[in-house]
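[stage:ingest] chain + small molecule (coproporphyrinogen III)
[stage:ingest] validated
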Amino acid sequence: MTDPLLIRVLNGEIASPPPAWLMRQAGRYLPEYRALRETSKGFVDYCLTPELATEATLQPMRRFADLDAAILFADILLIPFAAGAGVRFVAGEGPVMNPVASIAEIEALTWNAVAESLAPVSETVRRVRAALPADKALIGFAGAPWTVATYMIGGGKDPNRWAARTLAWKDPAAVDLLLTRLVDATVSYLVSQAEAGAQVLQIFDSWAEQLPAPLFDRVVVRPTRAIVDGVRAAGVAAPILGFPRGCGHLADVYARETGVTALALDMSQADAELVRRLPAAMPVQGGFDPALLAAGGAAMADEVSRLLTVADGRPYVFNLGHGVSPDIPIDHVAELLAIVKDR
Ligand code: CP3
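[stage:predict] done
[stage:export] tokens:
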């Protein structure tokens, strides 16, 4: 049997039309998601109940036949939740947790309990894979250590990641320890997702922005490299997508030095000159502005054409440059996918 289109493209095939999926394709813009969410006690509970998480993963697949992949319904903050950081999602406020700032506080977390408390996620992966048609890929994911650390150091909201960036300079040993603990937890989490049936793994580094090059190397590149090496050492061959959001032209360093298979671009990185400098033939993904998806209209088709030009002969996966937001009209999503698939 041939692999799903997304896997073939991440392994180097050039496809026209390209495979398509959307970051945050499951979520609050879907009425069926909001209805299901009301049946759970809280967001973390929702993610850790395989029956609900399986259903949430499959909802966008039922609605949009043009999607080539499902992404596991979970959250990047499940690792700090499982480590006992007190993660909760407060309506209107976003994620909140107990801040960590010292080696003692980092060592006091229950890192050894993470794998067991996240076992329900593997069960979700097994159920989704069993329910998905063979031509649709299943994507597993985790947050990158730096992005997860910014939430843990900031206690949730941390405008401009000020607390995390300050601590990275002030107490490098504490931040490096936190990143090391997160690397270890993330490697086993991703390996268990792959063993349960995830065929692609994406690493979300949503806060890779605003870092000077030496700090970018220390907190983004090295920990990501350690994850890729750890996952490969465990025998997992699945393509790995890296998403270093907001890091501008440092995406080139990231692409060369982390070992990821493919690079997910944000809006400003979806630029011909930046893409040309990436390692030869490395597949790229994404770049479409979610605000244009909110706006809708004829400009969507022009931007899809532009992105195909930016990819310039490389394997390309259609996606957004950041996630779908709750205010996006469902009709615009269907229209956008039709545009992508019609050419
Ligand atoms: O559809 C998918 O993409 C799969 C599921 C997914 C979620 N979060 C579900 C979710 C994925 C891949 C994520 C990743 C994630 N989570 C990131 C990286 C991507 C990005 O957007 O940059 C980050 C930074 C988080 C942390 C997080 N989780 C935040 C900031 C929030 C928003 C809090 C709020 O109330 O607005 C969440 C919650 C969250 N994760 C929701 C969903 C569907 C909404 C929660 C709800 O239903 O109340």
